[in-house]
């Protein structure tokens, strides 16, 4: 912690926010979602498996709320095209989004705060929590497929053909920015895996690494025509201010407790 404010946590959170917002602005998540859904060919179990896998993977990288905002409208649109009941898909996605938020140390704000304070590496967290979360996600998916097996109905071939006609590139602002966003997330994940086992965290702190990748992506997106204010306006500034307040309050209480303890030891003759 730096004074009362844990700057390492805040810098890491800001870096992740920049990367996620640029990727969302470009249309990366919509692109991947539509592309994956087209692979299902309208088969109910395949569609359920793909939608839920997307839910878990998206929530493991971006926050749960943004994942729901992307996937629920997408699920409803696909359900209307195929004329199927979206309820089983939406309920299962809602459950799995929460499980996906525990996959990685960067998957949620609480995860980031905990691993930063405890100095837990990305790999350590994944081996102790992530693998268990993956197993739970698989079990949960199988449970819901079994529970809703009688509610699944195969759509008509004509409706499946309508889904196939979707052009995934219509959701993308720029192919270059799309590839840059994908590369940034890939580099980020590889870096987090290497920091600790291979790279000394004191020389390359995870928060500085993430923020550097985020700034490079943001500058490139600005060059390609996306205004920084369009990215920043979607930031959860209330969350940042809330965390600042919590850090200051917790730091003040801790400092006060230490001073009180020191005075107690002094009066008891320890000094």
UniProtKB/TrEMBL annotation:
The keyword Transmembrane applies. InterPro entries: Cit_transptr-like_dom (IPR004680), Diverse_Ion_Transporter (IPR051475). The chain crosses the membrane at residues 12-39, 45-78, 90-113, 125-148, 177-196, 208-226, 235-253. It is found in: Membrane. GO terms for biological process: transmembrane transport. Pfam families: CitMHS (PF03600). The keyword rRNA-binding does not apply. One of its GO terms (cellular component) is membrane. It is a multi-pass membrane protein. Keywords: Membrane, Transmembrane, Transmembrane helix, Transport. Residues 8-255 form the Citrate transporter-like domain. Its main location: membrane. This is Citrate transporter-like domain-containing protein.
């Amino acid at each position: 912690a730096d004074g009362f404010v844990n700057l390492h946590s805040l810098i890491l959170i800001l870096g992740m926010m920049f990367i996620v917002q640029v990727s969302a602005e470009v249309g990366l998540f919509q692109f991947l979602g539509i592309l994956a859904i087209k692979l299902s060919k309208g088969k109910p179990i395949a569609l359920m498996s793909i939608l839920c896998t997307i839910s878990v993977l998206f929530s493991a990288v971006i926050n749960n709320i943004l994942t729901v905002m992307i996937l629920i409208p997408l699920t409803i649109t696909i359900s209307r095209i195929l004329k199927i009941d979206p309820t089983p898909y939406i309920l299962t996605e809602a459950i799995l989004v929460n499980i996906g938020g525990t996959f990685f140390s960067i998957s949620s704000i609480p995860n980031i705060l905990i691993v930063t304070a405890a100095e837990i590496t990305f790999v350590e967290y994944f081996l102790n929590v992530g693998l268990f979360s993956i197993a739970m996600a698989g079990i949960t998916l199988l449970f819901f497929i079994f529970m809703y097996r009688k509610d699944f109905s195969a759509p008509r071939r004509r409706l499946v053909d309508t889904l196939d006609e979707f052009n995934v590139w219509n959701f993308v602002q720029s192919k270059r920015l799309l590839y840059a966003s994908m590369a940034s997330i890939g580099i980020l994940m590889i870096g987090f895996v290497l920091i600790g086992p291979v790279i000394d965290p004191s020389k390359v702190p995870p928060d500085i690494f993430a923020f550097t990748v985020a700034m490079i992506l943001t500058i490139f997106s600005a060059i390609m025509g996306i205004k920084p204010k369009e990215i920043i306006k979607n930031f959860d500034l209330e969350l940042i201010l809330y965390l600042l307040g919590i850090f200051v309050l917790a730091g003040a209480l801790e400092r006060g407790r230490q001073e009180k303890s020191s005075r107690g030891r002094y009066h008891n003759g320890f000094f």
